Each structure stands twice: as C-alpha cells, then as structure tokens.
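User: Structure tokens for both sequences below?

Assistant:
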Amino acid sequence: MSYSQGEEPIYNEITEVKAEIGRVRHGLAPLMLQLLFLILFSGVLLAFLLQVPKVPCTQDQEEIYQELMQLKPRVDLICRPCPWDWMFFHGKCFFFSITKRNWSYSLTACQEVGAQLIIIESDEEQSFIQKMNKIKSHLWIGLSDMKHEGSWQWVDESPLLPR
C-alpha cells in the first residue's frame, strides 16, 4: 500500500494509541480484582461484626417489650379488624363466599376457619344481610331447625327470639 505524504505518521499514531488502550485495559484487570476483593472482605467483616452478641436487656426493657407484644394484636385489630377478603359491619367480620354450597357444607366450611354462619342480632344486621343477599344473590344464615323440627336455633345453640 502506498501512502501519500503525511499519511504514514497518522497511521503510526493511531496504532500507538490502540496499543496504549490495550495496555490500559490490561492494567485495569488487577485493579478491578483488588476492588472486588476489598468489597467482599468488607462484607465478610460486616457480617462478622453483626454476629457479635447483643447486650442483654434490662428488666425494664424486657417489661416494656412484653407490654408492646401484648398490645400488638389490639393495634392490628384497630387498623384492620377483619382479614382482607372479609367485610366489617357493626363490630363483626363477615365473609361472603363466591362458592355456592348447601347449608351443611357452608356450616362446616365456616367451622374449619374458626367462624360460624351469620347470627343476626339486630335490625341493622338484618338490613345489612338483606342488602348483601341482593348483591351476592346467595348466602346462608346460621339458623335452622335441624335438631328439633319446628324449634329454630342459631348455630351457637341460642333460640330464635321474637322481635
């Protein structure tokens, strides 16, 4: 290849710059390894320091901690008295399943989660249940005469009282 005057030195300069870049890149590898080692060593040192035994609590601190632990469930109830998929009304939590089941199966399903079928205790609850029945179109209350025909009882075995 022939060069015109002045071209060859530019080529040589470009070649030298490329070689210098290559040397810089190769010089970065040990530096990067040292930096990685320093980061890993710092992490191990921090983990070790966090494993140092903590200072034991004083009696007062322990009592305060115990009181806070006793208050936590109450605070949780204030913030969210019912599970997320349940509805809160007049101090009670109601769950309206999307699954249509018969009365007996619904009774058992409630008992398995520590709940019971609805026991209506006020006119407000009666109105609420009637509105929910229009929306849900199918729900069971906890009233039956299964134990004694014609003798209506709630699932908690309390009798149906006339209003």
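Moving on to the next sequence.
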Amino acid sequence: MLDALLLRLHTETACRRGGALALRLIDLHTDHALIRLSEKGGTQRWQPITPMLAARLSEHAQVRGAVTPTDALLRYRNGQPATYRRYDLLWARIGRRLPWVAAQGITTHWLRHTTLTWVERHFGYGVARAYAGHTDRRGPATTTYIKADLHAVATALAAFTGQPHPLAVGESVLR
C-alpha cells in the first residue's frame, strides 16, 4: 500500500522525496484535494492531488496510526514514519522485476521529470514551473512574469490524470 501511494503521489505531484517524507497529517486537505509540500530551501506550497489520492492518503494515515496534526502522513506498517530508505528498496525491487528500470536508472526524480515535461508540453512553461514549485529568480527577466496559480496547476493535474479536481478551471481537460 505504501509503495503504491508513493508512486502515485510522485507521479501526480512531481514532488521531491523530501517533500513527500515531510508530509504531516495537517498538510493533507481532503475537501480541496490539496497537500502542503515543504521542500528544498524551506519553501512551502500547496499542490493539488486527485480526490482519490487524497482519500487514500487519509485512509493510509489513519490505518497506520497518524493521530495528531504533526504526525507523519506516510508510514510503515508498524506505524513508524517512512524514510528515504523506502525509496531505495522500492526502486531496487522494481529494478529486479523490470530490468529496464535498473538499466535506465529510473528513480523518483525520473517520475518528477516525466510529469513536469508532460505538463510543460500541454500547459506551458509557467504552469510547469508552478507545478514543480520552482521559485528561483534566475534566468531571463521574462521568467519573473511567467507565473501560474493553483487553479492552473489543478487544471493540468485534471488533464494529466483524467480525474476532475475541485479547483480546476472550466471543463477543458486534454486527453
């Protein structure tokens, strides 16, 4: 169950491993299908997730003993918070079953890259930048003006997953 959640979480959100592992119960908002990611450089952002994933994460946390708002969301069967080691073991197991995964060096970061590439190609650079949580000011001056809001990210997620999102704008879902 945890491995499937990790793969789905990273595929939907393109979040970093550290962002996923830092998730706490208080960071999950099932009504709006959002998670609050705390990532690189101390940045925090709200990231849309499908209502289905929100429900599964809530159920997972409850079954595995998350009670207080600051309890880790992603947990092992014994109730302990998940760690980076889980990712190492996950990709090693997948690589043994699917040798091409090991040969190509597929990792969680590869999922991030793939999702963000899809978002950029279908929704543009600004949405991909917001989807990735990039806040850096480097690059051409025009990147200052290329921005997207939470609704644009939710719309991209809805198109990517084929599932509606409560914050998605309109019904324009690419397939």
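User: Anything stand out in the second?

Assistant: Residues 108-123 form the longest helix (16 residues).
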